[in-house]
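Example 3.2
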Amino acid sequence: MTDLQKYSRFSRPKKREKKVSNSKEVWIYTRVSSKNQKENYSLEFQREESEKFAVEHGYQITQYFGNEYESASSDITRKEFQALINEVKKSPKKPFGILVYVISRFSRTGGSAISIVEDLVERIGVNLIEVVTGLDTSTDEDKLTIYSKLIEARKENQQRLKLTVPGMKKFVKSGQYLGKVPIGYDHWGPRVVDPAKRGVKQKLVINKTGLILRKAWEWKLQGEEDVEIIKKLDVLGVKITKQNISS
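Structure, written as tokens:
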């Protein structure tokens, strides 16, 4: 062993080189926060603008992700978002980048989102590209701007919650039902999706399925097993899984 080799263990490890993809391939990710969200950038609009951007910059689109409404409150619970991240990690051929119309569509979780992007860029070698501005993480200046936008998106989300949560609490305390009604009921009122069931006053009305489900309660009280109840309901035209009959 040479003298130089003896001291090599005290030297600083070499800085890991950032992976850089020379590919012109890009993936597209689109998202809205709710099913009936009225935004200037709908799923279709986001996709069309991303496709135009790709053509203008000579990129080749090879995969699409998202195209769905998913809440911005948590990255972990967003199935389409997780599908995107998992696919980019395991894919043997990495794209140059992921196109998103605006950064807030990618995530509104702030620090958590920055951690995900940092991992994508530095470890995997895949960039995040904002279509509306042309910003991308391949340059340090743009990357810092994108990180700032992710933090700002988080702030906007928190501010929105401060404004909407008190109203939601007041709505529930007044005796109103918030969210999807249980199986067996029809929901009428000012906030329902179905235009035919919209009205000034909210009401929950038991429907045909609900009337049949009443029988399930009676059968349960008589000592019937869940498996038998499911079979009886199926004969009457109501299909219920074992998990749903339990809940």
